[in-house]
Amino acid sequence: MRHLILIRHGQASYGKANYDCLSAIGRQQAKVLGENLIHRDLPNGSIYHGSLERQRDTAQIIVNQQTLKSTETSIHLNEQPWLNELNSHQLMQYYGDKVQHPHQSTVSHSERTDQWPMKKADFASTFKQLIELWHQDPTPPFESFVQFQQRIDLGLSELVSTSPKHQPIILVSSAGVIASILQRVLQLELMQMLNLALTLNNASITEIQLSTSLDLHDLHSIYSGQKNTKHIGNLLGFNNIWPLQLQQDPKLITRL
Fold it and tell me: Which of 55, 90, 94, 164 is the most exposed place for a label (fewest CB within 10 A)?
């Protein structure tokens, strides 16, 4: 079995011009997480992350804490674009006019069609509607939902087959990607996947044991609706935020 450690990036800048930038809280979350991961004696090797700023910076801060522990520590960053999150801004621009916001009558037309709701309480409803619209559209003028899933399938399958088998695979990514991997392993329906994505906290840890015989066909068959009786893996831990909870600072517990 392969041990997969999935880390969601620290808090980004929701509602700001550059969402992709870690907030001050997000940087603190990543630092706390890195300090606590030191005690897990992570092996020398790679931490894999997407090319988005919030993913890359979270991974870098974690590695910085590891190198402060010992000059003998040799953990380097490995950028993997397949770990990039779905493009939510693109989805909002394209499908936004079909989304029903809870407070639609109180916002401008432009806010309804191409901007995320400023109230965080409205985010979940908007997110679910956008993903469902995307899921139902086979040929959008950008990466389709199926292509998003296939990108993750291919990247994960290749990484599992090529990375050192005696080491855990550590990934720093985003909620949509992590939920997509969980969908495969747990063989979940779309709405179950979306609910998991919305539950994931910033700087949380989710751990999975993957079958060593995992291949691309196994992953694709789940999404295509085929009956798959082959064991894909086990969920060892979900949305673990104990390093943040130990700080006893409610500001560090965030989802947006």
Answer: 164
